[in-house]
Amino acid sequence: MDNYKILFAGPVSAGKTTAITSVCATPPLTTEAQATDISRDSKTTTTVAMDYGTMQLPGIKTLHLYGTPGETRFDFMWDILSKGSTGLVLLIDNTHPDPFSELHFFLRAFKKFIKKSRIVIGITKTDICVTPRINDYQAQLRNVLPNIPVFSVDARNQIDVALLVEALMVSLDLELAA
Amino acid sequence: MKVQKQSNDTPIEQSFIATCATPQKAGYRPLKVALLDINERLENRLRYFFSDRCQGDYVVDVDPQSADICLIDLDGLRGKSYWAKHAAQQHNCPAILLSLHKTEVENAKWLQKPLQANLLHSELEKIREKLHLQQRQATPTSLPNSSAETEVAFSGHHQELRRKIKSLQAVLKKEKIRRAQLSVYRQGGQGDNPPLLSEPADVPTRQISVGNQEIKTAVPFIGSTPDVDLDNETQRAWVQYDPKKFLIGRVQKAIKLAETAGRPVSISSCHGSITIVPMTREVLVEIDGQRLQSLASQPVNDDEYQLSVQDSVCDIPGQTHRRPVEAFVWELTLWTSLGRIPVNVSPNNTVVFKHWPNLTRLQIFPQATRIAALWAKQTHTLASTAQALEIPQRYVFSFFSAAHAIGLATTEETINEEIASEENPVKSNGNRTLFRKILRQLSLH
User: Fold this and answer.
1) Of B3, B177, B210, the CB nearest to A177
2) Which pLDDT tens digit goes with each residue over A15-54?
């Protein structure tokens, strides 16, 4: 059985919808609505329920990609979408004033899920804001989640997102093989 | 849930796919693509794209004169002048122009940035068709007489065969998906599996390869050294190299010096200079990529490269390429190691892996993610890694060498050596102190 459900999570404007769109076979199903709160400053629309798309890997692997809403008022969707997921792609916006607090917030929010699954982290918008660097994120994670893939990612770039998903999949494969 | 460690293809399917994946054997030639004013980040992605998604159908060529296709970034400093020069001189070499904003051009295809892989692939394929057609038109329709004509005709025949194979391959993949779904339905589904919101078999899927095939274009980075018996000292020596005897050794020495001095350090040679800028963690390289690749693999003479601490950085636009230190060291190490390991590293000692490299910004090659994932999860020696993943040793050695060069991987005995070298000065200091005490005692008496 080679169908996998992958969850994309992270704060508002981290690039979850963009990342899913980059790697999906067809335009993904989205639930964009006009932003009415703080997310209004960074973009005009925001995900209110979920994004969904599929991605095909060589062999017969089909990845079902689900994007969560970034806003905390929709956090009930995080638990709903987590059910049955095999891995988590967490995207963090490097231009946020305190990206580490965002990182730890989402690691806490998905703590139960991460315990029984695998996670990869993509740091977006590193071309706009160079710091913190990837090594700084690795230092933050050293005592919490050592040795997980943390990559700089341009959510618009198919290869960047595909490589992040690939890292998750090979980690899962080894996990399952062990 | 089924683990897909290796391909699930049947032997027939495997041989079928292998036939498709090795078109070179039938006289098929990959098209050479010159990348003009393309930044290093995009270049890395394109190299990966050519080798992975395009399965080696295209290779990067540093010389635009010998290239089949030119890819020019018009937003680069020299992009427009490159295009003007190209348009004036090389009418027969098709060009693809890239820019953020729409640009009207004649005799070339324009693609908007950020680059969409499927659009680029489709344009490259169109150019391939066009070039092939031109070749056929230039060849008489009668039976080929000369060897060159035979090659062209054979290439044409092969192109058609290849197209048929590709379409059959697509059908085969669809069939595999359908069978997989059928087996799911027969099993009654599993609770852990996601709901299928649409029928995947009906969705025109975009293939994203995970790069688990050895491809010809990976050879410059992983070499072609065959597996050796690592318990045999003679054979082990074949897969070892001394970084100090290569350009990478000089570069690493310069990086240390630059970090200590907090000032730029230049490595000068008759080939050009390489300047390490510690403040921005960048390297300014005056030597072009192909030459650098060639220099990286050759042992250096003592007086070939001179290190000097600089007061300021001399960045001449158009002559120097700026690259992040980590990406530069990673790539230079791959070119140097070519599937070998540093001489002081024992392949039978456990690898200590600090953390995953930032692979989206480094030169990626097949098996890199699998090796990193394995080391992140379990402790392994270099020898056992190749066995566990069932891959040639050179992939593991290349990955280790590159990760070792940027400080992300080492082996246990290397750590012990470092600890020992740190302890030695302490011991000698202690002896010196004791010796001083004795002298003081003696002088007092």
Assistant:
1) B3
2) 999 999 998 877 888 877 777 655 555 677 788 777 898 8
